[in-house]
Design brief:
By secondary structure, the chain is of the alpha/beta class. The chain contains 7 helices and 7 strands, in the order E-H-E-H-H-H-E-H-E-E-E-H-E-H. The strands form 2 sheets. A 5-stranded parallel sheet has the order 2-1-3-6-7, sandwiched between helices. A two-stranded antiparallel ribbon has the order 4-5. Helix 1 packs parallel to helix 7. The longest helix has 18 residues. It is globular and about 55 Å long. The two termini are 15 Å apart. The mean pLDDT is 95.
């Protein structure tokens, strides 16, 4: 069964990026299995994703019917990104580790798609995710930090974000320590792709 897919790539390395290469290989593998329908690709390295401001936050918590024209204009990019996310069944996030965590552009995207009333809501039992995403693949790469180590703030953070917006199933495909053992890291990541 094919699924609509949103691909979010955050590496600034373009052709030299390990995470981008593995995202492409994952898409190819899923496509060969007949699991890929329409694909939307969002490249965060273009620096077009805005940082949120106090005005964004105020607009987030203003009832849509009560928002001013300026608030609607301010939220237009966030609205587009949320719509992309909610239209997908599968999310693929290509995330290199920058200084032990996510690239700034990916954090900016997260801040724009984690929207109260849109991708989550508060209940008496805590936050409830509303994204409708069935599964997410976190395709991560590190230069020297082992995934799962005390210095890995990338994967736990992304997993928490996925839970927060209601993703049902999360899989991690990791190529870590590529500056030390690139061939080994890629081989292990490809095994994870085949098993995904």
């Amino acid at each position: 069964m094919s699924h609509s897919v949103l691909v979010v790539n955050a590496s600034v390395q373009q052709e030299a990026s390990i995470s981008r290469k593995l995202v492409d290989e994952l898409l190819h593998t899923l496509s060969e299995r007949g699991e890929v329908g329409p694909v939307v690709e969002r490249d965060l390295s273009t620096n077009e994703v805005r940082l949120i401001s106090a005005e964004h936050v105020a607009a987030y918590y203003t009832d849509p019917d009560d928002r001013s024209a300026e608030q609607h204009r301010l939220l237009s990019q966030s609205d587009d990104l949320v719509a992309e996310l909610k239209a997908a069944d599968t999310l693929i996030v290509g995330a290199p580790m920058y200084n032990f965590s996510v690239p700034a552009s990916l954090k900016a995207w997260i801040d724009l798609v984690c929207r109260v009333g849109e991708t989550f809501r508060y209940t008496e039992n805590g936050p409830e995710g509303l994204s409708g995403i069935k599964r997410a693949y976190l395709v991560v790469a590190t230069g020297g930090t082992p995934i799962g180590s005390e210095a890995d703030f990338l994967v736990p953070y992304l997993k928490q974000v996925m839970r927060f917006i209601g993703v049902e199933q999360v899989e991690v495909i990791a190529a870590d320590k590529v500056k030390q053992e690139e061939d080994k890291a890629l081989a292990e990541a490809r095994e994870q792709i085949e098993a995904a």
